[in-house]
């Protein structure tokens, strides 16, 4: 069987072309907002806040309350933040980055053995964005996508076999992120005046909440001012956690402008996704974001989407977040 028909961004990048195919060129209106990411990263103005989670489980209620307030402010403001002192070791995050990078260093023919087949519903594996609009618009990205948690729902047979440590390292990272997700969901519940376990339960708990790993590989792009790595979108997840290789790219649309996330060593970037925005009746924000590419450095990011299984959950604002003065902003 032939693999996916999507061209690999990596093969275009390594072909030595100086101008990118027209399918990758963004519409004229959008081009005006695309700049050099290294220049953008240096800019002042509103920034992605940093949330120190050190005190989030403090015995001292005052200390804990201060930490909760910071988290609440960030979740109600940009809806995206750098988490530090999140409890996942630098060493484990480095290993996650190494195994993912090693996989993408394999020749394309090797990676093709893991190709997904979106047409037949096989969405896990190595892939590229297929054109889904009449314009045939494409993005400058290849990726690897697989379910990482709960462990009994994984299909380990489709995970990268090279490098050999991939499965062990990624499994451990997913387990630890699942723990972090629980802590954050508890904290966000308290911020909404709910019982601690409420949001966790609403999104499916330990049994049902899915952690989907997507390794995003953005090759160097000869005309980065004309393309995007990922186009503007919000995440449908409850929460999204992002690691990256310290190359800037992520931009957030805030107050009418694109702001560029700075690279903070060993922080984990966390997004509030649409699911939590809806459950909180819009109190927490799922921000529009996108990814720029550049000429000089390959960018890799490790995105973990924490999301309830689509078929099991009907999402609507929790009754406690709705009142006469705050009517539901989202239909079920
Ligand atoms: C995504 C995404 C941003 C990044 O995969 O949904 O927004 O930094 N990625 O790669
Ligand atoms: Ni996203």
Automatic annotation (TrEMBL):
Transmembrane stretches, start-end: none
InterPro entries with a match to the protein in the record: DIOX_N, IPNS-like_FE2OG_OXY, IPNS-like_sf, Oxoglu/Fe-dep_dioxygenase_dom, Plant_2OG-oxidoreductases
Origin superkingdom: Eukaryota
User: Which residue intervals define the domain Fe2OG dioxygenase in the entry?
Assistant: 209-308
Which cofactors go with this protein? L-ascorbate
Q: Does the keyword Oxidoreductase apply?
A: yes
Xref: SUPFAM superfamilies:
Clavaminate synthase-like
Q: Which GO terms describe its molecular function?
A: dioxygenase activity; L-ascorbic acid binding; metal ion binding
Q: Does the keyword Cytoplasm apply?
A: no
User: Which UniProt keywords are given for this protein, alphabetically ordered?
Assistant: Dioxygenase, Flavonoid biosynthesis, Iron, Metal-binding, Oxidoreductase, Vitamin C
Q: Where is the signal peptide?
A: none
Record-level GO BP terms: flavonoid biosynthetic process; pigment biosynthetic process
The record's similarity note reads: Belongs to the iron/ascorbate-dependent oxidoreductase family.
Q: What is this protein called?
A: Fe2OG dioxygenase domain-containing protein
